[in-house]
Request: fold
Amino acid sequence: MTRYLYDGTAEGLVSAIAQLLDSGTDPMLATLAEREDTLFEEGLFLRTDSDAVEALFSKLKQRAPDAVNAIRYCLMGDAGGLGTSLLRYVALALVHGDRINGHLTDDDVKAVVTMARKAGRELHRMKGLLRFEQMRDGAYLARMEPDHDVIQPLARHFSRRLRAQRWFIVDLRRQSAASWDGSALQFGTLEQFSRPELSDEEVAVQEMWRTFFRTIAIPERRNPKLQKSNMPAKYWKYLTEKQGE
Amino acid sequence: MEIQEKLGILSGAARYDASCASSGCGREGSAVRVGNTSQGGICHSWSDDGRCVSLLKILLSNDCRYDCAYCVNRSSNPVPRASFTAREVVDLTMEFYRRNYIEGLFLSSAVMKGPDQTMEEMVRVAEMLREEEKFGGYIHLKVIPGSSPELVRRAGLAADRISVNIELPSGESLQRLAPQKRRESILEPMRLIGTEIGSSLVERTLSRKAPRFAPAGQSTQMIIGASPETDLQILRLSQGLYRKMNLKRVYYSAFVPVNDDNRLPVLAAPPLLREHRLYQADWLLRFYNFSAEEILSDDAPDLDESFDPKTAWALRHPECFPVEVNRADYHTLLRVPGIGPTSAKRIVAARRFASITPEGLKKIGVVMKRAKYFVTCSGRPFEKEVREPLRLRQRLLLGEPAPEPRQLVLFS
Reply:
């Protein structure tokens, strides 16, 4: 068993996989992990090569387009511990094509598909739970701290849905941001963040939403446990309806 | 009256409507300025009763002429009354939508001056959203029984989903509890909607520009536990609605006693478990190829409270088990308790690589706690000794026996 290392980024991980497969390494005899900053770490370090990443993705897109999606979603999560599984998954996907996602009795496939599903679930959740607030200049701002790095697909979703208004989405866990000016989408990082003041209208609309939220529940059917299991408390921090409770 | 106060009254009055679905159609286009719909639907929040909030669910008015025994808005109830103008509903919908609180609007109403006048106002809200605001989000309109076919048609062209509430599971119960509503005036628009949806689908295969009529289909709702019908009667009705009128969904709403009325039963609490079992049985009708007559019979016309309806069916049919997971086809797998459409599909997909082991079944996501009594893996059973129906019932109810033999405490 040979141990290989990559730089800890998503691109570095895919690049390492591409290089290992190109060199004919047997994925069952290799492990792949994040490099840590210890002095005498054992393993061969593989440098990130963006051409290799491109080449691998274009090959995979032809043979297994669904597997490409699974990999992308998987990389939105914390894929640090999944290096070896991803390596073996990609090798299998190149042989079997998209059928590979059905091979759930295999531990590596299962690990990758499960991680991809979790990330996909949170992306779907955030499409519902993200809350935009109108600022004094008329633009809208939404804040979030998701477990997975979902900002790119999430922003694309809102660029189709809320295309007539200017908005920003900020991920305060990763210090990243997306912005939409009515015609183009941009991504960037946050240097520092302070929440701007809300417009007067915003304060009134939020109050109405809280009124709606309170009265739409049937008192005879109160069920906080079910509410929490559907909408975990970690998302409440930025939910308009859960403020001031 | 302040808009805030109206909103409190008219969302409180709308909360007994069960439907909140926003799924079933994808809409996106250049004529649209704000909003789209998503095929799978999106939930935006969950209220304190644990139900999902996807649409701004409100009544246009709760000022009702009718006096239905079960309804909180009935004319004889001394509740505060309020009505929105069309503009107010449009503005609320747009403001909520821009902040991503909702997928769209679910508009229902009490019957104000009459069915046509009420329906006309409701349709106007939907048309203003589509034409003036160029709103592309989801709209669900309730159809008021007795409104003219022309208004029903306009509703279907503006909305994604339209629905007529069947209210109660039988004509006799409707007569007794909602004497101003007639069964026929409920079924008639349902039939019309079914026909219009069908012909719109045909026209759209000929021309993509043909208008869409209620693209997310038709649904209905009935109250459970306010009248004496059995579960078999209810499931037969639903089955007929799915098969003959092509409905997308039937919603069951546990009767919440909001009025004192000697025509109504006295209940300590809403029959939530019964509602839950009916939804499970409804799923069997729609996704598992079961018929109402397989789930229940005239000898046993009500759903078992202790077991979900599929497990109950399996217990009555020991001759169909065990099922061999490495050979059985998709439909046979679907009949196994603990295996749903997702795991049945996964089993079929995974078998192509290697035969499935007991470990593999768990990884696939089968609920082994139930399934293990009903399947074999390459001929090997999981639980040899508990094939006998009575013991099996007991095992399913009580779970695994404790490792150390001990006295079971049934009453403490």
Summary: Chain A touches chain B through 54 residues (CB under 8 Å). Residues 2-122 of chain A form one domain.
